Amino acid sequence: MAARRVLVSGAGIAGTTLAYWLHRNGFEPVVVERAPALRPGGYKIDVRGAALPVVERMGLLDAVREARTDMQQAFIVDAKGRKAAAMDADTFGGRVHGDAEIHRGALARLIHGLTADTVEYRFGDSIATLEQDADGVDVVFESGRSERFDLVAGADGLHSRTRKAAFGPESEYVVGLGYGVASCSVPNTLGLDRCEMTYVGAGRTALVYHTAGSDHATALFLWAAEALEYDRKDPAAPAQVLRDAYAGEGWEVPKLLEAAADAEDLYLDPLAQVRMDHWSQGRVALLGDAAHAASAASGQGTSLALVGAYVLAGELARDGGHERAFQAYEERMRPFAETNQALGPKNVKSMVMASEAQVRFGMGFLKVASRLPGKDRLMAPVVKAIHKAATAIDLPEYGK
Predict the structure, then answer these.
(1) Rounded Cα–Cα distance for residues 266 and 248 (Å)
(2) 370-399, pLDDT tens digit by residue?
(3) At 91, which helix (H) or strand (E)?
């Protein structure tokens, strides 16, 4: 194939995985990442279904399992900290058939390590503009540097600059689900050991968890919010948004809010999906969240990123040019992505209860159900739906 030099925008899971498979298939990928270094931390994520053979073919499956979170138990608590329900952590997380849970940052380091010495990474820069013609793509970077590439792959997330440059404004493609999501590192003041505690209030949920080998805990917030309007240039604004959203809430929430205000890694965003009619435009293609974000509520973003990068690189390695490759990539990935996107709106309704009455009923039900034999079977329909979506693709064997 003539198109060999590929700019990959974004050094997240999708971008680094694509770089690995492109290099393995004889391409010359260049990865540009806006952050000054590989992004550390992040909440725990799952590698499931069709993503497992992708990781295995990269030679990383054993390392992923070695770095697993090793979560043991999950508890749901009321406003006074009383445990309303307890279950096995894998059951609570919907994990079956060898699914692996790992910190996002740990997985990113493992994948980056495969290409750190063979692929050019440019940190602290990003795409400003791009212009295509029949033979290539001229890219101007925020640093002022100009360069020409055969192809460009946008793996730069929900707020993709590549998508904006090639397809148009974010507002045309990003669809909010009516919730906000935030996460950050917090002190492990509860003394948790490989377990998580979830508190559910009306319209807002908060949880905190500790994973194997960690010297801190992680807090996650999910709440009903039609819009998140705040000054994104103000570093104190996200913590204030959280304080306003969770004002008057019980359990450990006030302490978690204080810790969030001091956290250096506080992440806050709308819970949203990306919905597009097509993922390529000329010599530019999108993958991962930039193309089809399923939202954190789906639990499938990482697996979609891994599988999509594998398929896109594999199709580009076949004969027929980039137009055929982009079409084949989308034809194979779109049904898989849409099936997993459907999990998000369904899942979030069980994560965030709409009213005080729903919270009281739900907590009462859990208290009774948690004492019954076979309580873990309550999660069986959820686990089945997740596994079905996670395996809803026929994964090809590409070349080498």
Answers:
(1) 21
(2) 666 665 666 667 678 888 898 999 999 987
(3) helix 89-92
Strand segments (E) across the chain: 5-9, 28-33, 44-47, 73-77, 83-88, 100-103, 120-123, 127-132, 137-141, 146-149, 151-154, 174-186, 195-201, 204-209, 217-224, 267-274, 280-281, 284-286
What pLDDT sits at residue 35? 94
Q: What is the pLDDT of residue 350?
A: 80
Q: pLDDT band at 226, cuts 50/70/90?
A: confident
With tokens 């908060």, the residue in question is 206
Return d(Cα 292, Cα 289) in angstroms, integer. 5
Query: Residues 6 or more apart from 49 whose CB is under 8 A from it?
Result: 97, 99, 303, 387, 389, 390, 391, 392
- Smallest Cα–Cα separation from 304: which of 45, 9, 30, 65? 45
Q: Are the C-beta atoms of residues 17 and 64 closer than 8 Å to each other?
A: no
pTM above 0.85, yes or no: yes
Q: How far apart are CA 303 and CA 305, in angstroms?
A: 5
pLDDT band at residue 58, thresholds of 50, 70 and 90?
very high
Residue in the structure block whose two tokens are 């209860």: 353
CA atoms of 20 and 333, how far apart (whole Å): 19
The torsion angle over the Cα atoms of residues 371, 372, 374 and 379, rounded to 10 degrees, is -70
Give strand pairing partners of 179: 224, 271
Q: Kindly state the average pLDDT of the residues 106-124.
A: 96
Token couple for 334: 């779109």
* 235-256 pLDDT, tens digit each: 999 999 999 999 999 899 999 9
